[in-house]
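Box 4.2: Ligand-aware structure prediction
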Amino acid sequence: MLFTIQVNNKKIKAEKGETILSALNRNGIIIPTLCRMKEFTPTGACRMCVVEVEGHDRLITACSHPVVEWMKIKTHSPRVITARKTIVELLLSNHPDDCLYCDKNLNCELQRLSEELNIRERRIRAKKIKPRLDQSSPAIVRELSKCILCGRCVRVCEEVITSTSLDFINRGGATHIGPAMDRDFNFSSCIHCGQCVLVCPTGALHEKHNISEVQEYLNNPEIVKVIQYSPLVTTGIAEELGIKYNKDFDKVLNSILRKIGFDKVFITGTGTDICISEIADELKTKIEEKERKPLYISACPAWVKYAEQFIPSILPQLSTVKSPQQVVGALIKTLVAEQAGVKPEKIYSVSATPCMAMKFEARRDGMMRKGISDVDSVMTVRELARLIRLYGIDVTNIEPEPADDPMAGRSSGAALAETSGGIAEAITRTLFFKITGKEVDRQQFKKLRAGGSFREATISGDDMELKVAVVDGLIGLEKLRAAQASGNQYDLIEVMACSGGCINGAGLPFSTIKDEKKSRAKSIYQADDTDAIGLPCKSPVLINLYEKLIKENKDISDKKIFHTHFEKRNVLL
Ligand code: SF4
Ligand code: SF4
Ligand code: FES
């Protein structure tokens, strides 16, 4: 039901049940917010969104207060602006003054609010918070002195990721955010998804940087420098560098990376095709053996760590296939090393990815052989963009070049794998083709491509039927459990920790991820519809690898390098 409210002496329409903030935003009136996150219930904690409402002595928080008919609101009165300004001034009073080299410089919400509220001096001075840098996690750095206690990280970790690895510690002036018992991050149950980094308004949480290490190796003439990048990296880099993305940019990125000093440039998508094909084979075996238990896909490293910590009972059903990054890493240190005539320890292997948990994954015990890691360093898209800028390359004036053989191409199924439901779809399509020799009707995947944290579909064709479930963000696990408890059985289950999949990965440009999940998924689906190579088994690159290069190399012909093992993980906190 619509009714009238008065805002700044003008009548606007509001809807029964909505908050003041929502009515204002719909009518084009912008109010600053800090603790609020879209799609979360408001807490009213920061008071940044206060407005004056006639009849109320105190200022009202617009994000948590519902509209009432004929309410009279002032959104930018002197009293309101002073209150908002004071909140920001108090936050700045003990904040470290290192904006110039802060991770969030130019992307910081506190910086933006200071600018918007015209704060030009440090009017309130308080004792600076003692710097505390927690670098113990393989993926995420915590800088406690930059934390403004908005609580967003705590909420996303608990309500979306369901890992509950962060919380408020102590009370009053001693309040801060941290893992249980105030231990370092590496002792916690954190699965390194990085979703807390995405929502943190300041530089209090950010990825662990690998740029200096990569630079060091780039300057070492004794070492062969190799990089792989996943499909979403090109669009992310184009955006970070302010270039309009088109398909040619994939090849431009290859040239850029070679100019920086990488000797070989591979695409992670080839590894995704291997991953899809290997999992389809695992599933085929299960079906032939009439195994009733489902096969869980293991491509998301944050999900894998979650399963090891919280649901170890499903580990026997978790596919043993490594993630695409690790598959390519393994090929680099075996096949590529042999082709180049260098020892694996003389290769420095870098991966650029939208996923933060892959920094952790590359350090796993099962991801190295004879003490040599398959992937030596993992960089987010933001880090790679910084590295490119550092080398002063004119990216607008560069000739496109192909990636290097033997990992220079992929199917559209590999790109599909970066959206939630995509890898399950690609595996199912591949399996049907492997068994029936025909492509399954793609319309049947519509349900798997829809929204919501849990989706299911029955795919059929040629006397064959496959029940597939997709958990889109770990919050969807609850619905999966309920469906299984009610008797639903599945053959294949995909779980991705971040909602939307890698298109919402914490390593993508901050500007990209805000409201772009849907359009990003849409363009991946469109590309899949038009791409000539929709199935991994039709990719000439994969055929060459499987039919020739891997087969002929006695060290890897058993394809064991594509598999690993997962174990119950005891977490202290
Ligand atoms: S990285 Fe993910 S699991 Fe770890 S604290 Fe952040 S949100 Fe929680
Ligand atoms: S770490 Fe960031 S998101 Fe978490 S409470 Fe502090 S400022 Fe907010
Ligand atoms: S945004 Fe409304 S109280 Fe924080």
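In the box above, the bound molecule is iron/sulfur cluster. Residues 2-76 form a domain with the Ubiquitin-like (UB roll) fold (CATH 3.10.20.740).
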